[in-house]
Amino acid sequence: METWSRRDQYRYFSAMQWPYWSLNSEVDVTRARGFMKQHGVPSYLGMIYLVTKAANAIPELRLRIQDGEVCEHETVHPSFTLLAHDGELRFCAARYTDDPNAFLARTREQSERIKRADAPLLTATAQDVLYLSCLPWVHFTSVSHPMPLAPQDAIPRIVWGRFEPRGAGVVLAVNLHLHHGLADGLHASRFMLGLEELCADPEKGFAGLAPQG
Fold first, then answer.
1. Contact assessment for residue 39 and residue 206, using Cβ atoms and an 8 Å cutoff
2. What b/e string do you get for 42-69 counting C-beta neighbours within 10 Å, with b at 16 or more?
3. Which of 54, 118, 157, 159 is 20 to 30 A from 141 (CA-CA)?
């Protein structure tokens, strides 16, 4: 901690009752959406892959607070919401890998298993995760999140909305919610720009993808 360049910012913001902040941005997903349709990739799972890939490229989004200490995970994985067949909310945890074929196959299978569960599975997760969700019904301009304060929770929350027509293209509203002691506007902006780059060049974003059945 004493040699960490952000130690002063971390101590300053961690002393606050509410050390969290959010950034909302619109991301052009025109090419990514077309690519996913062409290759048979479910749009929700496809966006989970791209969002997780963009987040893993930002070290500050892999920082967590565990037992009062700041640690960095080599890789973080998506823990995302699902609407089950009975209309109830579920949480589904997946393991991230750069290989889109392996990730999409495993995550689709896990999602279907969770959807068929008899009871809502709202369980605590590990720290090496991202909390992801989608509001496919609305195009929003702001999102708030329930957060525990004791102990403070440093897991980023990322939410996106429906595919919104914009001129000849399509945009997504994306919300990123962070602990300010671990990440500033620079890091949040790098995430948004990285996600935008992956969506603008889906051949790179989904590098190695085989057509999905």
1. yes
2. ebbbbbbbbbbbbbbebebbbbbbeeee
3. 54
Per-residue DSSP letters for 30-91?
HHHHHHHHHHT--HHHHHHHHHHHHHHT-GGGGEEEETTEEEE-S--EEEEEEE-TTS-EEE
Pairing of strands 129-134, 157-160: parallel
CATH classification of the domain holding 115: 3.30.559.10
Over residues 73-94, the pLDDT tens digits come to: 999 999 999 988 777 888 999 9
Q: At which residue do the structure tokens 């967590």 appear?
A: 64
Q: Which pTM was predicted?
A: 0.96
Using CA of residue 165, residue 166, residue 172, residue 176, what is the dihedral sign? negative
Question: 212 in a domain, yes or no?
Answer: no
Which residues contact residue 118 at a Cβ distance below 8 angstroms, ignoring those fewer than 6 apart? none
H or E, element range at 12: helix 7-14
Cα dihedral across residues 143, 146, 147, 149: positive or negative = positive
Work out how many domains the chain is built from and give that number. 1
